[in-house]
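Researcher: Predict the fold of Arf-GAP with coiled-coil, ANK repeat and PH domain-containing protein.
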Amino acid sequence: MKITVDFEECLKDSPRFRATIEEVEGDVCELESKLDKLVKLCIGMIDAGKAYNAANKQFVNGIRELAQQSAKDEVIESSLTKFAESLQEMINYHTILFDQAQRSIKTQLQTFVKDDLRKFKEAKKQFDKVSEEKENALIKNAQAPRNKQHEVEEATNILTATRKCFRHIVLDYVLQINVLQSKRRSEILKSMLSFMYAHLTFFHQGYDLFSELQPLMKQLGGQLDQLVVDAAKEKRDMEQKHSTIQQKDFSNDDTKLEYNVDADNGIAMEGYLFKRASNAFKTWNRRWFSIQNNQLVYQKKFKDNPTVVVEDLRLCTVKHCEDIERRFCFEVVSPTKSCMMQADSEKLRQAWIKAVQNSIATAFRDKGDSGEKLDRKSSTSTGSLDSGGEPKERSLKGESALQKVLAIPGNACCCDCGQPDPRWASINLGITLCIQCSGIHRSLGVHFSKVRSLTLDSWEPELLKLMCELGNRVINQIYEARREELGARKPQPGDPRHEVEAYIKAKYVDRRFVRRPSDEELRTKVVSLSKEEKRLSSSSDHLPPKAPPPTPKLRPGSHASGQSVKSADSGIQNSADGSREMLATTPSSNSLADAEAAEAPPVPATLPTASPCKEVVFFEPKEYSPGLQLYWASFSRSLPDMAEALAHGAEVNWVNTEEDKRTPLIMAVHGGSLVTCEFLLQNAVNVNQLDAQGRGPLHHATMLGHTGQVCLFLKRGANQNAADIDEKTPLSIAVEAANADIVTLLRLAKMNEEMREAEGPYNPSGDETYQDIFQDFTHMASNDPDKLNRYQQYDPQRP
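Model: Structure tokens for Arf-GAP with coiled-coil, ANK repeat and PH domain-containing protein follow.
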């Protein structure tokens, strides 16, 4: 180690030593100033780099959005996607570079300044102090009078002690100077060398990345030349076609219309007509009419569902109409109504009349085809071709579970690493997974994730609906809400397994990226969900009739003096009078399919004098919690909100002590959704948990006449022998309500249970007839719930 200040010289305390010390102190002071400046410049560079990365990331997102918008052009989409991925990798490399700069320059040099330079300054203070004391002792010793022996001795002793102390302090100070001078060299060089190696790695990674991208860029360059040539040719062709059309004779604006029964799109004829409304004002509106599937329909806009004017053209006639003020009118008359229409010219009127007549004749000639078309006709209440009587699930018949699940937006790639074409799923989370991530999910345990194959395993209808109600996009919005904020990198296909496993555990086990709601946000969410069922019940025209929605009530004590809470019957009457206050003001966050919503039973012709179960009403709770969000989300049939509540730590068996100890599963029963119940069951809910009345979910489903839910609970081990506080079992309730389907299911389940106990290990699954019947009820509940609806609910006061 090179000695900057000589130890022997410091003991002499010569002017040469003092000059050296003064030079070293000045050098250290300047060093500190330069290091502080360098650290500040490094911080500025890192901040600017982070801002650059943020802007670059937005730019890359813009490229991805442009690629998605160009999905119809495979060349543009694939190229932009690849470019965006490469630029994203460069952003990641930049981030690593700035992190290394922070560690090597900022942190390391700041540590050197704070530790080593601080020790030097402390040693300097002690040296200056003892130097001053030594100087005073020398002066005092020189001034001691010769004739005063005691003062001479005292001054001599002080001088001796001061010199001894000075020697120790000056040697320590010189040691600190020498160590500092030696260490500054290693610290500065080590810091800068680390920073330069970070740059070397950054440029190597960038070079390797773009070396892989270079063949694609060269290929696109060659294609681009051809694209320029093709574009110029297309422009010339368009200009030639434009000039050719301009030369045509447009004196007659009538478009040539022809009736074509064999058209590829099934539309025999289409065009604009004026239609006279059936209101009191008899207004005329221009609409796009078409003859298709043996029906006359019209649309206002292309995206609108067609409205049916005539459901079966075989039952109608068409005739000229000359007895009104307008010209070119004709009338289509059916047994139930007539429709007046106006063409733009006499030629067009004749063409439409001929088209309708030809369609009628064709329908009569080909009765077989017309029968199939009539099966697809719309109901008169909706007037839509797409709202046929056949459930939507039927249209998917024959498709595999893989096709149905992957059709959900976001499911075409693995939820956790983005691997395309996944073949596995987590059924309690509602996501699709690649084979590597599915193995990691299995290792988490079934209390976190239940993995099933999309191609090898069989899928129940209600489970398939659950997968279609959630999906990767919905779940990632919940479990990755704070991922970018925390700077966590999402795994990519091909990443090492230990990195993917660490990310998945952080995501689902630790829930590190879930955004926790504030108290006010949670309150707003719960109140909105409590109002959702009312909106679904009262404002959704497409839903079938349901039992009367809950009557709004307030807590006791919140009424004005003398004002009482309305009963359920008075609430129903007020609803009929149109005077009851509407609770729902917010749109639904998750509107279920029509077939699913049809699970709820219709309103009976004569309402019972007492409600079948205690009325579901929203009271202001003492405190809001994720469990309360799960409670009301289950009632409002909102699976995304239920998944969010579980991610926030909601207990799946949460009990509402303020509302008869009801649970989310009981509220799902009252919401009328089979899929909601399935979601809770897949997340380990207790199917036999009772409320304050001693009633479990099976009791409530039986009372409400929800046959599909009864079937589901029996399959999942619900105790049908449990009796409530009135000593009523589900079977006795179903018998009193005369609900034949539920009585059949309960008795079959009891018989199957007895057979399994009798036969023991020789037949663990029970009777095959029982399995077949339950399977039929399961498919009916999911695909055709109207067949299971019961108009008569259980009334405990029925004699």
